[in-house]
Amino acid sequence: MTAMMWFDQLLHLALHLGLLVILYVGVVQAIGWRHRPLRSPPRTVAGEQLRVYEGRYKGRIQDIQLEFEVPDTIQFTLRREGWFDRLAKAIGLVSETQLGEAKLDRTLYLELPGSLLQLNRAEPTALTWILGLDKRLRVQGARLLSLQASKGRLKLRALIVPARQSVDPLILSCVQWLEVPLAALRQLGSGQHPESPWPIVNRLIGWTWLIALAGGIALLHFGHAHIVDLGRLALAALILATLLTITGFIWLSHHYDLSSTRHRLLLSLAFIGWPTLWGASALLLRQINISLDPHPPSVTALADSELQLVQRRRIQDRYALAFETVDGRTRRIDVGLFQTLSWLSRWDTQTGDRLQLQQHQGALGIAWRQVAERAESESP
Hints:
By secondary structure, the protein is α+β, with helices and mostly antiparallel strands. It is built from twelve helices and 13 strands. It has three domains: about 10-35 and about 200-255 and about 260-290, no CATH class; about 40-190, no CATH class; about 300-375, CATH 2.40.50.140.
């Protein structure tokens, strides 16, 4: 193989890997988007400095997020309980603090570490005001989504029902309502040092990543005769997608240190990110399998080697091709434009052309496509 051919193959490989990395970063960022810090400029309301985000739709505010500064050691979560929370509790992934009130325990998810329990003993009014925030918001025409303290930020998210053009009175009411708990939280957190989250679990995940990486390389390099072709592709894509999912969770867990946040991120990656990355990995490996194959294509045995193109019709991003074999039978093939079939645009194929149906045997042993090429023999 010439140096230019190797360069073309490496360029093709780099292109597909780059597309996968872009998709991977997009999936991970989208899953962690809700927990991002606000970048809006700070404002002062009732003597309290905070950041405000207003989610607008058609000029009306649908939801708001308020962000206050608190000590790094203060960590807790209060939010509407979703099915991710119920699933995490059912499988033992997380445990919830119970308040002893059936209605609150059923509708709200609460995670209170020891520091907040100390706050309840030292300043019972503060926790009472935190739990009463939902009722306060309902009076103002809003609905509490979450109140979370982590990494030096106390974030309040609320849904505005119905949407309105201005929420300044609601913001003022929230700041005034949180005045007592904010003062208690800042006094409690002063002089304490934050703990490093999850050191042992991060090491275990790192070792899992290394083992899976070694297994994936061994599968791609050596392979096994008893694994069928499509099974090898699916298994290789499974390993690659799992590696990306684990590394994404490691990255997110270092940014969000609350277990209540982690289990939502983990389940989001499991139910949304992992299937997306698996499908993208399968497409990537299918393309790499054909682009890095040094062997020439071989004529397929699925039909007679010489066919006649009788119809070519474009349907959105696919071509519908109809071929007539030498014995008069018609075969139809749908060809995707993203399957590297540049011959459709490179050559002016017309009805009546003599073509060959070809396929590649890639590095993974997968005959993954049927490609129509112009035959070098005579044309009609």
